[in-house]
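Why do we care about 3D structure at all? Because function follows from shape, and shape follows, mostly, from sequence. That is the central idea of this module. The next example makes it concrete: a single protein chain, its amino acid sequence, and then its structure expressed as tokens.
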Amino acid sequence: MAATATKSYAVVTGASSGIGYELAAQFAGHGFDVLVVAEDTGIGDAAQRLRANGSEVESLQADLATFEGVEKLCDKLRASGRTLDAVAINAGVGVWGPFAETELKAHLNLINLNVVSAVHLTHRLLREMLPRREGRILFTSSIAATAPGPYMSTYNASKAFLKSFAEALREELKDTGITVTALMPGPTDTNFFGRAHMEDTKLGQGKKDDPAEVAKEGFEALMAGQDHVVAGSFKNKIQATASHVLPDTVTAAMHRKESEPGSGKE
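And the structure:
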């Protein structure tokens, strides 16, 4: 990538499909060179498609739910010799179902990917950004962060962590030239619901936003230095606003009606 080293450089995790892929497309379409990262083998094909934008796009297959996977990414960045201008910490997974009846291993993997890897990677990257006093960090949180999530208990909690983490870091870094933005989409048309086996829920069957539009709003908010953006439909914005007013007991009950097994058959 030395030939394009004067171009801005971004990293997007969880970029083989969905919002992550579309975020990478936004960066590539706006003149960034991009490193895309995901656990699955599809990340190589994603990088190839993204090169159609004319930017240099490299791929890395790494399991960011592991300490070694995050370090593999950090080693790749150091070896590139590139100055990192922006990172979209987007990799995440969902677990759906009654907490006590779902596999503990799946919940711990969710926490490792959605939470631990985000903390790990951010700590490493900030050490590189702070001396330069510039950089942009985007966390993909969710409107799920605004309410407890029955049948999605660890997922909603992980997104609430990311939102709080992003807001705290933003305040810490306000005089450093580094901005932090939380992207908060609602239900989006990705393979999330299929992987979580949520097809028979109201959430799984309901209308979903276009991941390309969600990514566009997230990219624009990042570049504008905004603290957060509730992306997608107007319904998402209403839900996020209502969650600040209603008690958690009420929002938890509302979420249950959307996520309870068989709720899509009602």
